[in-house]
């Protein structure tokens, strides 16, 4: 009897690890159940930030902070480049933290130094009134070089002390209206 219970638990392990670390909201579950094509949705689970770097203006330089990094989500197979510079436009809603687009429109980020929040559309093919997004954060450990002068003035260049930062998405919510 104990052996069969143990065997059942071991057999269930792969299924237990196939789900994200956050709870799927009832509203999204209902949408997925209502449309069988959406039932095959792969939820964002974890992400990797690659080669994170910033250029921060120093005294007398009123340009914006430039940010550049790679993003990879193995669960959804999204790989893209993300950046913010002087020509970037806030793609977020008014009165909320500014959001910056990545090259893949399913991924955006929020930079509130020193925290980077990644946002990825969950189940982009779903039908319904709400668009859902998974969110997760990282605080890159940055190593900064002494200020130097570039075409916009004096800047401090900071790079992540490790080339790859692995994190989990920790929530899923409707995209702000």
UniProtKB/TrEMBL annotation:
Signal peptide position in this chain?
Answer: 1-18
**Entry keywords, A to Z:** Signal
Q: What is this protein called?
A: AA1-like domain-containing protein
The protein's organism comes out as: Coniochaeta pulveracea
